[in-house]
Design brief:
Length: 224
Amino acid sequence: MKENKKLKVLNLYAGIGGNRKLWENVDVTAIENNPEIAKIYQDFFPDDKIIVADALKYLVNHYKEFDFIWSSPPCQSHSKVRLMASKSGSYSEVLPDMSLWQQIIFLKYYCDCKWVVENVKPYYKPLIKPQEAGRHFFWCNFIILNKKKDGLTHNERGTKKIGMDISKYNLSHRKDQILRNCVHPKLGLHIFEMAFKKKQKQMGDFCTKPKEVLNQITTIHNKS
């Protein structure tokens, strides 16, 4: 039997690859600008192509080469935690990193493949309306169903929770922060399946929950 062709995936701001951990039958190019973290990613996923580069520049130059694009740009400048820490004097004030919105707009109007941009729920009203799943906001060109299914709404983090042990590495970055930045593998798989693997399941949900799905479709249509 002929094997299914692997999906070509671009994983931007890859970190150590929490979102990618449970993906199967994929040919992944991962972009990470920190060499230390890129090395850990390569150890976890030796078959992936890992490139130390600027993710935004790579996206603009290579987006046409992929079947699926996942982007998780830095979230700190958008987070409620950073805002509160700045107000308390623990951190200095920081301008929101507008590359988040640049990517969403660019992908929406230029990209023909499936794509998703993930980030935290910001302290301000989102400039572009997202979909919400687990602890995250997602902007994408497909509908995310079952957003509150078991296993997606928890705050699990750390080695035991996500199954990625980085204790052996000597790093200049805080290990707890690196793990906390990971999208939980179960959530990463769910989003990936919503884009590709669960089309029949989605059609079933259209039949059993028509009002819920119609409302989601209407919302997405109104944003276009």
